[in-house]
Amino acid sequence: MRQYILFLLLIFFQPCNSQFRNSLYDNNQINISIRGGLDFPSYDNQTKYIDYKPNLNLGISADYYFNWIGLGIDADYLQNSPKNSYPTENLYLGNIKISDPTLTENKIQRYFFGIGPNFRWVITDDLGLTFKLKGGISNIKGGETSLISTNGNNIYNLNFHKGYDEKNVFSGKGELEFNWFFSENIGLNVGGYYLQHFKTKDLATGHIPFITNDNRNTISPANAETRTSALEHEVHSVGFFAGLTFRIPAKGSDPNYGLSVIARDQETGELLPDTFVELYKNGKRAYFARTNAQGVAFFKNIKPDNYEIKGSLYNIDLISSKADKTEFVKNSTIKKEISTDKETFLVKGQVNICNSKNPLNGVTIVIKNNDTQIYHDIKTNIDGKFYFKAEKNSTYDIFGKKGNYFSQTETVTSKKVDRTNTLFLNLQVCMEETTCGKPINLKNIHYDLDKFFIREDAKAELNKLVQFMKDNPKVNVELSSHTDSRASDDYNKTLSQNRANAAVDYLVSKGIVKARLKPIGYGETKLLNKCSNNIDCTEAEHQANRRTEMKVICP
Hints:
Elements: H1 2-13, E1 29-43, E2 50-53, E3 55-65, E4 69-84, E5 91-93, E6 96-97, E7 102-105, E8 108-122, E9 127-142, E10 145-151, E11 154-161, E12 164-181, E13 186-201, E14 205-207, E15 210-213, E16 216-219, E17 225-227, E18 232-249, E19 257-264, E20 276-281, E21 284-290, E22 296-299, E23 307-313, E24 316-317, E25 321-323, E26 332-339, E27 344-353, E28 364-369, E29 374-379, E30 385-391, E31 395-402, E32 405-407, E33 410-413, E34 424-433, E35 440-442, H2 456-471, E36 477-482, H3 489-509, E37 517-523, H4 539-545, E38 547-552
Parallel strand pairs: 5-16, 19-26, 27-34, 36-37
Antiparallel strand pairs: 1-3, 1-18, 2-4, 3-4, 4-8, 5-6, 7-10, 8-9, 9-12, 10-11, 11-14, 12-13, 13-18, 14-17, 15-16, 19-22, 20-21, 20-23, 23-24, 23-25, 27-30, 28-29, 28-31, 31-32, 31-33, 32-34, 35-38, 36-38
């Protein structure tokens, strides 16, 4: 049963990683809760053939909250029924069948009274999660069980337990309670608990052993096992409940002023969790918060004033809003909204090491707007993520830079994307570690038919290689060119060597020392597929063989 304690604590401490916030209704707040549910008991009383069924739990609690911490009193009534597992049919004494037994079972009733601290996490104006700890005393009564059979004048008490008659048993309780208020003063509660009664004592118990063979249960009264003294043990209980909570503002409490800010996309209406929201007064930041999973940030017990409401999502600014001092109402929350720009998209990028799911942090992402030819760069976070704002009807080329990693150029476009139903554009960038001797295919380097001069569209890819070699000045690179199998072997060898030479010449023109570069034309000698001479292949298969590769030369 102790695993339930760990389970409840795990659930509690996970939300507590978030900041505790005062609720509009928390300070000097009284809550009265009533509840009912199902209790699952475990009695460590060593009754071999008696267990206990899940049954009713009823409770009432009164809690006073200073703010996010409070003090509460609980009263619980729990009821369980014994469950006999001793056989009740085909009972024999030797070869004589005895009568089917009569089973008598009385319910166990437990009354718990406890007091202790409460810890509340306010999720929204209407939703809250509370962890309660209670220590107190319990009364435990009932549970008498007997299974009696007769054989002539002989009476056999096959299985019995005298039950409980305990008072003032020290008990402890941990409870996790979720509240949703559908009006200012009335709400629903649902949750679970773990309850333990320490050093509980029962009355006598015993049973007559039996042997089961050929569908016969043969009893052995001479070997009856009986305990007449009380056994000190523990009683555990877990349960679930639901009910109503009534909250009562304390008289004379200070007035509260609240502001809730919704972050939303202007076009799609999509709510924006994890938006950083700030309230500025006279140009200085006065308060800040972050939106929750519902896209709402709460500011509680703030001073009524004129505020500018600013927000940013992934460090991208949203359209601000204002709150006027005259809008604030005592003991109420005013609502405001900030939004994204309907003329832009948000690009969510992820950088991983190629052919794996491992993210790469600290990567400089170079972003080029192909329409304006404007460049800018940003860094990936610890999870390899990056974000930027993309204009409507625009196309961007993106690649990454980091040490001895090399990335291909990826493209993301907002052209022909309907902004009214799309805010985010997703992009994956992979970076490959340049291990010496390992070839890396340079995408997007194309040549005109039978030509070897560097086209404009190939320069962007070669410029990345220029930057890579400047970032790694001790690295030497082999630059190789490959053709498909069409045309003669000699022709392809010469053409590929000329193309490799042209690529090297371009790098030299950008400031790379020629001694660090080794151009090699492999022609059709290193095909990636079956498409050798006189083999029928598709254009796509031939295209796979036409490539330019770079690899770091091993020292």
